[in-house]
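Write out this protein's structure.
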Amino acid sequence: MSASRKKRLAIVAVGTVAAAAIYLGAYFACVSVQFRFGMEAKVRSIGRAHAYYKVPPGLGDFADSFFEPARLFDAYYLRPKLWDDR
């Protein structure tokens, strides 16, 4: 491999990590987890919990779809205790 190719790969890798960090940072900056309680049977709360995003009213649906991968990653890997039944 030439030096310029290694340099390009390093730039791409650093850029990818930076983009992922910015995406997760934006998710954590505007997420609020709230639980819906009702008469339904006790099941794992990832399905019952809902993430509310602190965004302008017109962008709520966009935020739900844009941050869905981050929400699932958060619920299953980063903070599963937060998403468990309470």
